[in-house]
């Protein structure tokens, strides 16, 4: 296996099998995002690229505890469909694939799954169903835990210190700064310079580097807490309030 490979899709079945047999990769990050318009200056795949980047960096810092899966690159983006090129999944279709990917990981023995999201339109649909998913997995395997967070929420306190405008916004200061630092090839400077008096003009690569580091560091901290079982009690309490016990 390539040194410190953490992306599931790049590994062979032998590499995955042997890693799991060694007790590695007991925790997984499932990255979610979107392929959608990001104004005139930023590439369509920013959201899924950013979530995947944060997930990969965090997993590398915790190697070999955490593996990263990216089962779907599109998101729930009906509100961007007036812009050609946007791809959108219906909430039911998208949630079905996401759930099935999480369940696949759990069936292979992964204990903790963090769905690390990079697109705002995915938040409400997952938020509406997450407790049901936690219940489902808990009743089948009390060791399994599933959480969902957007990467900017895990690092919101730092991000709001670094940015003058809304976090995360949409292709504005926060996301454009991240892109300038991580994927400069995704930013069209001519289009950016033409957008006078817009929030994205506040974006800099320097801010992006700070935002990216905060996102990775807070994702690592969150994963460490998950691995230590620190969130388990809270999830179990929520579950206990909803389950009808046997007579
Ligand atoms: Zn975005």
Describe this entry's structure for a reader:
- This protein has about 250 residues and is α/β, with parallel strands linked by helices.
- The protein is built from ten helices and four strands; from the N terminus they run H-E-H-E-H-E-H-E-H-H-H-H-H-H.
- It has helices at about 15-20, 45-60, 90-105, 125-140, 150-155, 155-160, 175-180, 190-195, 205-225, 230-240, and strands at about 25-30, 65-70, 110-115, 145-150.
- Strands 2-1-3-4 form a four-stranded parallel sheet, sandwiched between helices.
- Helix 4 links the parallel strand 3 and strand 4 (about 145-150).
- The protein is globular.
- It starts with 12 loop residues before the first helix and ends in a 5-residue tail after the last helix.
- The structure holds zinc ion (ZN).
- The site of zinc ion (ZN) has 6 residues, from helix 2.
- Zinc ion binds near residues 38, 46, 171 and 175.
Secondary structure topology:
Blueprint: H1 13-21, E1 27-32, H2 46-61, E2 66-69, H3 91-107, E3 112-117, H4 123-140, E4 145-150, H5 151-154, H6 156-162, H7 173-182, H8 189-193, H9 205-227, H10 232-242
Parallel strand pairs: 1-2, 1-3, 3-4
Helix pairs in contact: 2-9, 3-4, 4-10, 6-9, 7-9
Bound molecules: zinc ion (ZN).
Zinc ion binds next to helix 2.
Indicate the overall shape: globular
Separate helix tally:
10
- The CATH homologous superfamily is termed Creatininase
Sheet bearing the most strands, described? Answer: 4 strands, parallel
Distance between the termini: 51 Å
Count the domains.
1
Under the CATH scheme, the architecture is: 3-Layer(aba) Sandwich
* List of distinct ligands in this structure: zinc ion
| Assigned CATH class | Alpha Beta
Structural class: alpha/beta
Q: Tell how many strands the DSSP assignment holds.
A: 4
Task: Provide the low-confidence segments as ranges.
Answer: none
State the order of secondary-structure elements, H for helix, E for strand: HEHEHEHEHHHHHH
Mean pLDDT reading = 94
* Strand line-up in the sheet with most strands: 2-1-3-4
User: What is the percentage of strand-forming residues?
Assistant: 5-15%
